[in-house]
Amino acid sequence: MELKNWPHPADVVKVIEAKEHKEQTIQAYTDGSKNEHGVGSGVAVFAGKELVSQIKFKLDNRCSNNQAEQLAIAKALEIIESIDISENRPRTVTIFTDSKITLDSLMNVNNHDYLIEEIRKRISILERDN
User: Fold this and answer.
1) CATH of the domain at 45
2) DSSP 8-state code for residue 2
3) Which pLDDT does position 6 carry in this prediction?
């Protein structure tokens, strides 16, 4: 990514650790893992209480656990972009992840890894569309 396209520090993603679950329009659950059997990612997205999408990916064995976690979040955001919400309801989204490394990377303005930038881009699209 070119330097001129890097986000301004004021525009960095805001991460809030959920202590209690509030009712959101959309909830996404993401996970990625790597073990002796391979590398994979999974995503489940709910609109209210309705499961709207559930996907899993088998990734190349060269992928890291962190890449699997980040891909799951990026795919969840991609799915969320396509969900229609009635115009009189705000689109509020909660993404549940156990990847502290990804959350820390999103908040680090000096991290310009491809998947981190993809997640930032998709969050920006969702914010702009609301």
Assistant:
1) 3.30.420.10
2) -
3) 54
pLDDT of residue 71: 96
Does 71 fall in a domain?
yes
Say if 97 falls within a structural domain: yes
Residue 3 lies in a domain: no
Task: Evaluate whether 127 touches 80 at the Cβ level (below 8 Å).
Answer: no
**Confidence at residue 12, expressed as pLDDT on a 0 to 100 scale:** 52
Q: What DSSP letter does each residue of 77-98 carry, written as one string? A: HHHHHH----TTS---EEEE--
Q: 67: helix, coil or strand? A: helix
CA distance 33 to 69: 7
Check if the beta carbon of residue 35 is closer than 8 Å to that of residue 64.
no
| Structural domain for 28, as ranges | 22-129
CA distances to 12, 19, 45, 99 from 48, in Å: 27, 19, 10, 24
Q: What is the pLDDT of residue 83?
A: 86
Q: What is the mean pLDDT of each run of 10 residues along the chain (130 residues)?
A: 51 57 79 94 92 94 95 95 74 89 93 94 83
Rounded-to-integer distance, Cα 52 and Cα 59, Å: 23
Tokens read off for 121? 């881009």
